[in-house]
Write a structure and sequence with these properties.
Elements lengths: L6 H6 L4 E5 L25 H14 L3 E5 L9 H10 L3 E6 L6 H10 L3 E5 L4 H8 L4 H14 L3 E8 L7 H10 L4 E6 L5 H4 L10 H17 L3 E4 L10 H4 L18 E4 L4 E3 L10 E4 L5 H7 L5 H4 L7 H5 L3 H4 L4 H8 L9 H9 L2 E9 L10 E8 L51 E2 L6 E2 L13 H36 L1
Parallel strand pairs: 1-2, 1-8, 2-3, 3-4, 4-5, 5-6, 6-7
Antiparallel strand pairs: 8-9, 9-10, 11-12, 13-14
Helix pairs in contact: 2-3, 3-4
Length: about 500
């Protein structure tokens, strides 16, 4: 939905962005659905309770609310909820599979103040229909995009990347650009709920080495066609293309750690409050709106505060030794916790895969146990470190200069200790964590700490690379100004001749 959050809002923990599961009812059968959507929850909020939730969120400072499901529009009072959100001046959008999204529903929502409709497209027709579990769902999704655009709504697309998605991504861009889509958000499908049952669809961590260059190429093409590619919270992490995923006008912007419970708040359909909509209910539910106000849950519950209180000491495996540990804090909590039952070590990282590749190594996941048949349930996986087929593993793993030690080079088994949930001091509302701000090495486009004089990634002299970059920019600006002046003179000459 394009939210922008200031450092001060993060420090004060303003829940700028809300993601709200209105109902667990759904008309699709997605293989990767973490919430196992289908039937409604046993005790979903009443209309009066839902409208009160909107009022509470407004008082907390929410600026945008994204409605999800299940399928949010299958809740009969969803238009009333959209209207209440809009009445507070809060931007409202909906994420949908597009099936049965009629023109009447679209127009009612637009009249109530809905600003944006995001449609999930997870592949071209054959793949999408297989993953979504309903024949014809692809055509319905694309049709919903076009009709929403015609109704004057901003249209966006969300794609969950499975192991089969990569070949379809260029074709998806063609389709959504033609449909007038402005934002394309991509994320890697995560090992939760139905995805644990269908673990054959999950990407292997080493596949990010193919994914990230492809996304970078599509990012460039998308910009030319008016589509802004938005990297989800488990895309990237400080590889050579990180500068593409996070910026909102400044290429020096970068990933700064999990925003759950700091600038993001989420609700389940029965009133359960979490710091992120994707996190497991068990262990990350701070309370229920029927028992406490949202403000009380937000300010007092340790389950909400984990990202505010996380330190480098909470990380483990590769992430504990990584050059970017203090900034990244192991990336997306949902991804690592769902996979390993413990946050703080995320194998779906481009920088990590590149560093291991230098040593002839890669990581592969393997399922050990299934997940319970409950929403947001996780199973048990292991991450296996192994030689890249056809490459000989480096004999000196500690030779990589950007790692603090070689202690990350161990096989990560399933028997990891439970994640300790830190608690703030009694009566103290912990501030949000504002990550350190990094610079760019202009020789290799990797992020570096401001104190570096020699790039730890490529060995370049940082100051000389920056000076050369500025000189190249000046020459480019001068050339563009000369071309503009030449065009102006030619146009003036053409007018004079006429």
């Amino acid at each position: 939905m394009g939210r922008q959050t200031t450092a001060e809002e993060v420090r004060r923990c303003v829940p700028v962005a809300v993601v709200w599961e209105l109902t667990l009812t759904c008309n699709l059968k997605c293989q990767h659905c973490g919430s196992r959507a289908g039937r409604p929850r046993a005790d979903e909020l009443t209309t009066a309770e839902a409208l009160d939730v909107v009022d509470q969120l407004a008082r907390l400072g929410a600026r945008e609310i994204g409605l999800i499901g299940g399928e949010a529009f299958l809740r009969r009072d969803w238009i009333q909820i959209v209207r209440r959100i809009s009445s507070h001046g809060i931007r409202c959008g909906i994420q949908t599979g597009g099936r049965q999204l009629t023109n009447e529903r679209i127009q009612q929502a637009a009249d109530a103040g809905l600003k944006q409709i995001g449609v999930s497209i997870d592949g071209l027709e054959a793949l999408h229909d297989r993953v979504r579990g309903v024949p014809g769902s692809f055509r319905m999704a694309v049709d919903a995009l076009r009709r929403s655009k015609a109704a004057g709504l901003e249209v966006t697309v969300n794609t969950s990347i499975t192991c089969d998605t990569l070949p379809d991504l260029p074709g998806i861009l063609d389709i959504i650009a033609d449909a007038g889509v402005t934002v394309w958000q991509l994320q890697i499908a995560v090992a939760m709920g139905n995805a644990v049952d269908n673990d054959h669809i999950l990407m292997q961590p080493y596949q990010v080495l193919d994914l990230m260059p492809l996304l970078a190429r599509l990012w460039e093409e998308g910009r030319k066609r008016g589509v802004w590619m938005d990297g989800g919270n488990n895309i990237g992490y400080f590889g050579p293309y990180e500068r593409l995923w996070r910026p909102r006008g400044d290429e020096r912007d970068h990933w700064g750690g999990c925003g759950a419970g700091q600038s993001v708040i989420a609700l389940e359909a029965d009133g359960t409050v979490k710091g992120c909509p994707s996190l497991a209910t068990v262990g990350f539910a701070g309370g229920n709106v029927r028992d406490m106000t949202i403000e009380q849950i937000w300010n007092t519950r340790k389950e909400i505060h984990f990202a505010r209180l996380r330190t480098v000491d909470d990380l483990w495996g590769f992430c504990r030794t990584c050059y970017y540990a203090d900034v990244c804090r192991a990336g997306c909590t949902w991804t690592s916790h769902s996979l390993l039952g413990r946050p703080g070590n995320n194998p779906y990282c481009h920088y990590r895969a590149l560093e291991l590749e230098k040593r002839g190594l890669r990581e592969r996941i393997a399922k050990l146990h299934d997940a319970p048949k409950k929403p947001f349930a996780i199973g048990e996986f292991e991450v296996i470190l192994e030689p890249i087929p056809g490459k000989e593993a480096a004999s000196q793993p500690s030779a990589a200069p950007s790692l603090r030690s070689s202690s990350d080079l161990v096989q990560i088994g399933a028997a990891t200790p439970a994640y300790p949930v830190r608690e703030a001091e009694p009566g103290v509302v912990p501030e949000g964590r504002v990550a350190p701000v990094l610079d760019l090495c202009r020789a290799c486009n990797q992020y570096i700490y401001p104190h570096e004089s020699t790039c730890p990634h490529c060995g370049a002299d940082v100051a000389k690379a920056a000076a050369a970059h500025e000189q190249a920019l000046r020459k480019r600006r001068e050339l563009m100004a000369s071309m503009a002046e030449l065009i102006r003179k030619r146009e003036q000459g053409a007018v004079a001749v006429q």
